[in-house]
Amino acid sequence: DLRKQARQLENELDLKLVSFSKLCTSYSSSRDGRRDRYSSDTTPLLNGSSQDRMFETMAVEIEQLLGKLTGINDKMAEYTSSAGVPALNAALMHTLQRHRDILQDYTHEFHKTKANFLAIRERENLLGSVRKDIESYKSGSGVNNRRTELFLKEHEHLRNSDRLIEETISIAMATKENMTSQRGMLKSIQSKMNTLANRFPAVNSLIQRINLRKRRDSLILGGIIGVCTILLLLYAFH
How distant, in Å, are the alpha carbons of 18, 119, 124, 167 from that of 164? Predict the structure, then answer.
């Protein structure tokens, strides 16, 4: 029953984290589009934003789900350590460790995505403030010559290039982290397989004997087929 509850919470967390990641990814691009539509910047970019409210709501929901899953893991740990289940202790500990690893991965992914979102929001807030200062300077001083416009366009191009480079670096870092995580999972599986193989040497010996017998049977069958083929050829030519 505890495993069933844990799996249900893990499925809910997986869906929530996917939606949370998509929200954080689309945050910067939507802010750029909003700045292009409203060049006057008469209202703050971030205050009262629906995306910010959605971010806060989803973060609270994910934290609640993580807390529930932590509680379920603690209950499973209490069950495995209780008396009356000594024969199943190894299998239960393996299951508990797997659920703990999943919880740790989800917690790490949530905090990383949240930190990225907060960093993007802080950067967007700073850029929005700079843009408002530039616009106020232009309207207050009345400077609207060709050179100023060229400088502003060049600044916009540089800022867009910087944003694209940062997004590319972020994607590369995420890919590297995923590959590192997959390598760690493969190493963990390999170590567990080696542990099982060391625990059951008789199984390895039996498998080796079976393989040797299969090779011997294959050689005998091949020899019989070859002799029969030679006899058939001799019979056919004589």
Answer: 22, 16, 14, 5
